[in-house]
Amino acid sequence: MIANVTIITLVLFLVIAFTLLERLRFLAPYRKVILAAHQEVIVGYLLLLFFNIFGILFMVYRQFFFKDTGKKLKQLEKQLDSEATDLITELDRDR
To answer: Distance between CA atoms of 95 and 16, rounded to whole angstroms?
Structure first.
């Protein structure tokens, strides 16, 4: 789940970054001056943007893809409780 969200976040982050690079092309001659003065702030905001996108996508992913998790776990627990004797006898046979 985290791997899927990370990949989607990375793709979305790159789309945003390339869009910004395209729109801010007129600042290219001043790149060295801007980076020398504001590099830490720019990196900080980019990290903040990445983690915010990750958090939003993680929340959406959990909301849509884990709807019935509680019900499924209850059903699994009931099945394990009812089949506990079968499981014990199978484990005894393996010895």
So the answer is: 59
For residue 8, tell me if it sits in a domain: yes
Phi, psi of 66 (to 5 degrees): -125, 45
Is residue 56 assigned to a domain? Answer: yes
Sites in the chain below the pLDDT cut of 50:
none
Q: Give the count of domains, the chain.
A: 1
Of the candidates 27, 26, 60, 64, the one whose C-alpha atom is nearest the C-alpha of residue 42 is 27
42 within some domain: yes
Residues belonging to the chain: 95
- For the full predicted model, state whether its pTM sits above 0.85: no
Residue 74 maps to a domain: no
The single residue listed with the structure tokens 């014990």 is 88
Nearest Cα neighbor of 49 from 27, 19, 71, 84 is 19
Q: What is the span of the domain harbouring residue 63?
A: 2-67
